[in-house]
Amino acid sequence: EFTFNLLISVIRKTPYAFESVKKGKWRETEYKYRGRELNGLTLGIIGFGRIGSNLAKYSLAFGMKIVAYDPYVKIKDDKVDQVKKVEDLVNKVDAMAICVHLNEETYKMINNTVFSKMKDGVYFINTSRGDVIDEKALVKNLENGKILAAGLDVISDEFTSLKDEHPLIKYAKKNNNLIITPHIAGLTYDSEEKAQTAAFIAIKNFLINK
């Protein structure tokens, strides 16, 4: 849900419009906040596990077309176009969402080579881990317009206290095409209750079977 929320916020520029209203502006600045409709846009999803597959469901309901890459999953939904290589996805999509685990294979898998193969003016979303992205390349492609706007819930070195010095946060302070949230995608009362219930059941089953 949060990944989908970021996608809409980036495309419709919702946070910036709200900030404008708080400054006393109304329709006189509307030209800054013109966006796109989701219907008809093509979304590329890299990683089609629990998060990626749910994102596809929400996006399909809004009339988006889905192209997905995941070498470890056989996608059975005939509404999803599964490709065999990341390169087969990047030049087809209007928006891209990264939904993978961080490991040696995915470390900085989204780099300048990948960005350069995208269409101009793509929307980019990352709710996986910051180190999946080459962040310097992301800033470069936000600056040159290859990426029209991005939404992130994660950054590299998240546990450092020097957040103001992080290149993505420094960029976001001066530009209105990058939304960053503090890793809150899973931060709901519902998810915490589910985790507690799962832990309780696991312990209970362990004790019963001991």
Characteristics:
210 residues; 7 strands; seven-stranded parallel β-sheet; 15% strand; 8 helices; alpha/beta
Given helix and strand content, the structural type is alpha/beta
Described by strand count, sense and barrel closure, the largest sheet is:
7 strands, parallel
Helix content percent band: 25-40%
Report the β-strand fraction as a percent range.
15-25%
H and E order: HHEHEEHEHEHEHEH
N-C termini distance: 38 Å
Rg over CA atoms, rounded to whole Å, is 19 Å
Number of helices: 8
**Per the principal axes of the C-alpha atoms, what is the gross shape?**
globular
**Secondary structure tally: strands:** 7
Explain the layout of strands and helices.
Elements: H1 2-12, H2 14-22, E1 42-46, H3 50-61, E2 65-69, E3 80-83, H4 87-90, E4 95-98, H5 112-116, E5 122-126, H6 135-143, E6 147-152, H7 167-174, E7 178-180, H8 189-209
Parallel strand pairs: 1-2, 1-4, 2-3, 4-5, 5-6, 6-7
Report on this model:
By secondary structure, the chain is of the alpha/beta class. Helix content is 38%, strand content 15%. The chain is built from 8 helices and 7 strands. The longest helix has 21 residues, at 189-209. The chain is globular, with a radius of gyration of 19 Å. The N and C termini lie far apart (38 Å). The model has no long low-confidence stretch (mean pLDDT 95).
Provide a short characterization of the protein structure.
The chain has 210 residues and is an alpha/beta fold. The protein has 8 helices and 7 strands; from the N terminus they run H-H-E-H-E-E-H-E-H-E-H-E-H-E-H.
